[in-house]
Amino acid sequence: MPGWPMSPPHTPAAPGPAPGRCGEPPGPAGGAIAGRGRSLSAAAMAEGPEPKRRRAEAGAGAGAEAEAEAGAEPGPGAPFPLGSVRLRRLLRDSAREKAAFVHGQVTGPSGEDTDAVLILEKTPFQEEKIEELLKKHTKLELQMSNDIYSTYRLYPPPELSEIKTTVVYPATEKHLQKYLRQEVHLIRESWEDYKNITLPFIQSQSFSIQWVYNILEKKAEADRIIHENQDPCNGFVLVPDFKWNQNQLDDLYLIALIQRRDVKSLRDLTGEHLPLLKNILQEGKEAIGKRFGVPGSQLRIYLHYQPSYYHLHVHFTALGYDAPGSAVERAHLLADVIDNLALDSAYYQKRALTFALRADEPLLKKFQEAGRV
User: Fold this and answer.
1) 362 phi and psi angles, rounded to 5 deg
2) In angstroms, what CA-CA distances link 331 with 55, 294, 302, 312, 336?
3) pLDDT at site 25
4) What is the pTM of this model?
5) Which end of the chain, C or N, has fewer beta carbons within 10 A?
6) Could you give the CA distance from residue 172 to residue 222 in angstroms, rounded to a whole number?
7) CA 114 → CA 53, 68, 72, 362, 372, distances in Å?
8) Residues taking part in catalysis
9) pLDDT digits (tens, 9 = 90+) for 152-173
């Protein structure tokens, strides 16, 4: 949508106490089931100061245009050497998402090979560029013609052939498994299952979520903040998710990260957290409406269970966007969560929750060992 503002100053922080913690941090529970690290978008790297875009887990920047020589390992602030990547295997491709997930390797200066995951994704069309695309195409091949119907293969010019490139580097085996195509199983988790199986598993994990704390403390991505409420108990920070390149509204995607560090997931929520959740719902909708012109009635606002990382966060996506993880077996609408907690403060400590796990996930093995699958 032409003309909508992309980079005005973020919404001023809501009045409240100085930034701080509300409750103790979860300690080792800050892990991730699938070993999710926050990956780096080449487009995002190009838009702003590189150090603010770097993730603690990623260890290096990502760049769509790399000029590094083969064998050179990227250092802090250096572009990722995309041209030096050796393809190991295609982990998964998705016709629906128009994306490919690739396992590659980069050889360091001392000769060791380091794994990387590359996500290559065709970006959505931008209305203001469609006419230019039709006029400037480099080649048009007829594939089929029948009466009034015909199919062509159109080759756009390079400047209109953008592929969003997300890099996870260095990548662990958990990252590779996350993107590998696998069978999926549905789990029905009771509260007892959570206490005896899921929670001990979470507490045994050590996958870093330092990138979350970097955002909350403005050590990274401060220039990307759309809205913040600094209240240590009921505040949050709203930032664009890296799955959204911010070039169009059709696939709008933002994340609200809570300020407090003692709430891991939906299972921890009680009536005590209603002011926090209501702030996220109301202030998040207002901030997105003010910045992007999208009304709350066109937003899907939800939490994941199981989440990809154990620091409570809320997803804001365009209602018309079929966002990953928005299916019924994982997404819980924030408005419904608020209503449930208003009815019963211990709602999520009582009811069973259903979620999907991939065949390789260690948590699935824990449920199998307990005879729950």
Assistant:
1) -60, -30
2) 26, 21, 6, 13, 11
3) 54
4) 0.64
5) N
6) 27
7) 21, 16, 12, 24, 37
8) 313
9) 999 988 888 888 898 989 898 8
